[in-house]
Sequence to fold (223 residues):
Amino acid sequence: GQQLNQSPQSMFIQEGEDVSMNCTSSSIFNTWLWYKQDPGEGPVLLIALYKAGELTSNGRLTAQFGITRKDSFLNISASIPSDVGIYFCAGHGGTYKYIFGTGTRLKVLA
Amino acid sequence: DAGVIQSPRHEVTEMGQEVTLRCKPISGHNSLFWYRQTMMRGLELLIYFNNNVPIDDSGMPEDRFSAKMPNASFSTLKIQPSEPRDSAVYFCASSSWDGDIQYFGAGTRLSVL
Fold:
């Protein structure tokens, strides 16, 4: 099935550093979402974006809906050990058919 | 509020056996989804129900897979007979309507030996 290009694939960072990841699509989306998946658990919604250019924050997390509607970005400020996990983007054109990203695996070094 | 509840969390079975995975969606949600997650293919949509009716089963890999939703609070995904290549994590998700945010359960990790 189709997957969105997500980068980086994985990253090691030091605690306290900021993290940036992005997701790109060849198709235009109406909605972008960012999920986090901890080991052995299901994806948990972090942020939902509904409008091109929209910038939304959730605590230390900030996500943006790209103005071309073909990309989205997630930033994590001042990372902490519990930020470890896999971050997935997902996009859809207004229906149930989510297209998921390939995931960014984040590891935080204390 | 309780989220999406899946059972069992882990299932180990032998090739050829029947496997049944269960899901209770969030109360009030009318859309239910079954996904399969593997390293190679990521999250794949298997089937989508709206108001208990299967709307899109194009992702069901083959006839060995079947899914039912007898009422608004329960769904099953059955594999019969199971094969080693079915080993994966199976997620159930629900949303309040088909284009709304999907909320995922904790998943069932299936191992077919």
Observations:
- The mean pLDDT of chain A is 95.
- DSSP finds no helices and eleven strands in chain A.
- The longest strand of chain A covers residues 85-92.
